Amino acid sequence: MAVQINPSILSADFSRLAQEAKAVEGADWLHVDVMDNHFVPNLTLGVPIVESLARATDTPLDCHLMIQDADRWAPQYVEAGAGSVTFHAEAAAAPVRLAREIRAMGARASMALKPATPIEPFEDLLPELDMLLIMTVEPGFGGQAFLDIMLPKIRRTRELISKHGLELWLQVDGGVSASTIERCAEAGADVFVAGSAVYGASDPAQAVRALRTQAQAATAQAAWACDH
Ligand SMILES: O=C(CO)[C@H](O)[C@H](O)COP(=O)(O)O
Predict the structure, then answer these.
(1) What's the order of all strands across the beta sheet hosting 169-173?
(2) Which domains does the chain have, with CATH numbers?
(3) Which of the two ends of the chain, N or C, has the fewest CB atoms closer than 10 A to its terminal CB?
């Protein structure tokens, strides 16, 4: 199974977004954190900047919406050029309808869970999704410490994906670095968002390659991947 490394633009220099996007070309996706200062206590960027970023880079955009009223806004991010749109389970009134709408518009549909939100109530919804995002920090800010207590949730989610024979990608976001990525991969994650570990490095593109090598090695040893 191929692992994917998605640098988070949240940790980039916002005055140079086009250059910062180009600095990580070679990454699988560019992770774009949209925050509205209501769902999370931080404010970042919206539809016009996503449109500009989509024009500025060949790397597909993985938009993570940390916003209220996701049902209303998520389709606009597909129109803006996002290849994948993640809404939060806690912010969507009709997640199945929304996932179907995103897919019908031609993008990948993804749902995120905050640390305190369990996966079990969403088991039946997983076939409607292309990706499930497990937050490994409280959403809102980059540079936070990885929450080890999320590892059992990653394992349970991977078990559910296997049980149902799904092609669902399992993304982790928050505190993912050289020190934590192997634990995430062993637990079952295959898509890794990294902000400060990439943009805090002297060579962001090299940081992406190094994280991918680590994740690939850990996945090759992982029991969940060996079963496939
Ligand atoms: O969603 C996010 C915060 O809500 C960011 O994507 C995440 O925190 C990435 O930053 P870092 O890798 O530095 O933790």
Answers:
(1) 4-7, 191-194, 169-173, 131-135, 108-113, 84-88, 61-66, 30-35
(2) 4-226 (3.20.20.70)
(3) C
